[in-house]
Amino acid sequence: MRIIALDVHRSFAQTAILKNGKLRDAGKVDLERNRLLQFARKLKLDDEIVIEATGNTSAIVRLLSPFVGRVIIANPILVRAIAWAKVKTDKIDAAVLAKLHASGFLPEVWVPDEETETRRRVVAERTQLVSQTTRLKNRILHANRSRLTRASCSQSVEGLGWRLSRSPRSSDASSFAEAIAGWTAQPRTTPGGQRDYSDLAIKTALTLRTVFRLALRQTKGLIGSIMKMLEIDLPVPDHTMLSRRACGLPVCNLARIGTRELHLIVDSTGLQLPGIGDCLKHGTTKRRAWRKLHIGIDAGNGEIVASDLTDKDVDDASHVPTLLDQPSSIPSFFAVDHLQP
C-alpha cells in the first residue's frame, strides 16, 4: 500500500509518496481535469490519497476516488506540524502529510457521501433562489416607495411639516413649513454680527437630530436631502453651527408625565468650568472654577422635575426652597442628603 500526499495549490499539487517506510518526491501535478485524470490512472486500487481541505478539494476528491482505495482529507488548522512550521515548502508539507497519516496522527475531516452532497447542492440552490427573490422584492418595494415619497414631497411642504408635527418627540417644535418660512434670521438691529439662520431653523434641525438619533454631520446631510427633494434653495447649517447655536437656545421645561404622587429626591453634582477658580496646576495657563448642579428627580420614572446651578459652597439642604418651587405639584415624599422631613 502506498500513501500519496498532495499539497494542493490553485493550479498545481506537490506530491509525495510513502511506501515501505521510504519517502520520495513525485513532483508536481497540474490540476487541470485531463492532467489530473492521467495522474489518477497511474494509481492503484489499494493506494490512499492524503489531501488538505481547501477550496478545490471536493472536485479533486470526486476525480481521484474511483481510482484509489481511500481519500483522506486533513484539517489544515489542526495539522500543527504544517501550520506552525518555521520552514515551509511544498515538498516538506506533502512529506509531513504522508508521515502523519502513516503514524495515525493525522486529523481527518468527514467526507460526505454522494447523497449528502446532492442534498447540500439542492439546499444551497434553494437558499440562493430565496435570497435573489427577496432582494428583487426589496428593490421593487424601494422603487415604489421612493416614487411615492418624491410625489408626496413635491406636492407640498405642509405634508412633511404635518408628519413632523404629529411626531410625539417633536411636539414642542414648530411645523416644518413654518421653519422653512422663517429659516433665515431677521436683520439685526443691535451691534454685532448678522446671523444666517434663525433660532427656529436651528431648533428644527436639532429636533430632526433627536427624532432620528443622528450625529451633527448626519443631521446636515438629512436636511440637505430634504431641501433637495422639496426643491428648496436654502442654505443648510453645518455641524459646527448646530453645535454653537444649540448652547444658546432656550430650554423649555416639559410638563410632568402622569397624575400620580410625586416622590422628589434631590442630589447634586460638581461641574468644572474654565475661568477664575481655586489655583493653577502645573503646566496650565488658565484657572478652573467649580459649580454645583442641584437636580430634583421623580423617583417613580426618573424624570428631572427641578434643577438649578449654584456656587460650589451651596449645599442641597439650604437650596431646597428653590427646588420645591419648580415642580407643578407638591411632593408627597421628599429626600435630600439622607434626611427626610
| Helical amount | 25-40%
Q: Report the β-strand fraction as a percent range.
A: 15-25%
> Which ranges are low-confidence, i.e. pLDDT below 50, for 5 or more consecutive residues?
149-159, 167-174
**What's the level 1 CATH class of the largest domain?**
Alpha Beta
Strand order of the largest sheet: 3-2-1-4-5
What is the assigned CATH homologous superfamily of the largest domain?
A: ATPase, nucleotide binding domain
CATH architecture assignment name of the largest domain: 2-Layer Sandwich
Q: Please describe the biggest sheet, giving its number of strands, its sense, and whether it closes into a barrel.
A: 5 strands, mixed
Q: Determine the mean pLDDT.
A: 78
Q: Could you state the order of secondary-structure elements as H and E?
A: EEEHEHEHHHHHHHHEEEHE
Number of domains: 3
**N-to-C terminal Cα separation, in Å?**
95 Å
User: Tally the helices: what do you get?
Assistant: 11
Rg result: 38 Å
Q: What oligomeric state do these chains adopt?
A: single chain
